Amino acid sequence: KVRATHPDCSIVLYFQERETECLEIIRSERQTSAPPGSPQQQGCLTEWDGVSCWSAVPVGQSRAVACPDILHVFKKSKALIRRNCTESGWSFPSPPYYNACELEAVGSNNDTEAKASYFVTMKVLYTCGYSTSLAALFLAIGIFSCFRKLHCTRNSIHIHFFTSFILRGAAVFIKDAVLFSDESVDHCTMSTANCKAAIAFFQYSVLANFYWLLVEGMYLQTLLLLTFTSDKRYIWWYILIGWGVPMLTVCIWVVTRLQYDDHGCWDDYTSPYWWVIKAPILLAIFVNFLVFLNVTRMLAQKIRSPDISKNYKQQYMRLTKSTLLLIPLFGVHYVVFALFPEHIGVDARLYFELVLGSYQGFLVALLYCFLNGEVQAEIKRNWGKWQSSMESNVFNLATQDFTA
């Protein structure tokens, strides 16, 4: 089985694997142990000292082991650590591990505290970002749902797009609650059904996010190509692409992880099976980029065309400005980071994906709803109608009081 792990967990898992192998040897020795007092018993049995496994030897002999072979932790050293088998048991390691095995240069306590403070700050920032986005998205969905004149295929697609952002924000909070709520749990060895389900839900929400952005681009292109065709006939295809393709992808990924790489919490991005998720996202971004170029070309043609009235030109501009802004905004950073290994540019990756990414839902609600002229006009119209109704009620009450 593939054993891809997060780099921070490699040390823990390395020693756990060595310990498991050593304990298996000890167990087999006990099952085939010689009778007490026999010559085979006059020696030191296999022992795990927390760092290395010392194989059994007779009294008077010794064993030598090298320093643990862990990249970026111990410097390559030719020094050997020896232990002698005496009548009273194994001797102490000589030289001690801390002398024989030189550690790579690591940060000081101040660096560790600064790093911990950095991650706490990041969590506060993206928590505020996702909370702001969720509030804006729920308000935007409420506006599109409440006003009957806003009920159309275009706004229905916007609602689905908003919902994918709501799921993404909720998935981040659920993942944090499941994975990091209990500090006593070793995250490196955590492998529960709850944490795997939380990661799978998170991956689904991210996929749905990118595919509903793809649907926004496809809808815009269809609208420009087929001006006089009813767009309601395509809505179920859009729903199938936006929700169905991510669901199929995540199901394939879950089955693959269960079958070939079922360890940890599935949150390691160094596994080759991570491409089951990454490849469809890159495909959606690539197709969206092609849609972006094609829509820009068609828009330029329609604006220059003398047969298109000024009202239609303004309509085309209003329909395209939001989508054309979002397509490169949501895809560029993902493509850039996809070209590098996961351990390269971690700080920049975290900043873009967590901090800036947390405010994407707010930006979407702002562009598609709050800055939408059609929405603003409908709100003003209903606000004016409500004010007139209130003034009429006040006038009626005052008249009743006067006549009474």
Automatic annotation (TrEMBL):
Protein name (Swiss-Prot/TrEMBL): VIPR1 protein
PANTHER family xrefs: GROWTH HORMONE RELEASING HORMONE RECEPTOR 2 PRECURSOR, PDF RECEPTOR-LIKE PROTEIN-RELATED
Annotated GO CC locations: plasma membrane
InterPro entries in alphabetical order: GPCR_2, GPCR_2-like_7TM, GPCR_2_extracell_dom_sf, GPCR_2_extracellular_dom, GPCR_2_secretin-like, GPCR_2_secretin-like_CS
Transmembrane spans: 124-147, 210-228, 235-255, 275-295, 323-344, 350-371
Gene Ontology MF, one: peptide hormone binding
Residues covered by the G-protein coupled receptors family 2 profile domain: 21-105, 122-372
UniProt similarity note: Belongs to the G-protein coupled receptor 2 family.
Record PROSITE patterns: G_PROTEIN_RECEP_F2_1, G_PROTEIN_RECEP_F2_2, G_PROTEIN_RECEP_F2_3, G_PROTEIN_RECEP_F2_4
Domain of life, per lineage: Eukaryota
Biological source species: Phaetusa simplex
Keyword Transmembrane helix annotated: yes
Membrane topology: Multi-pass membrane protein
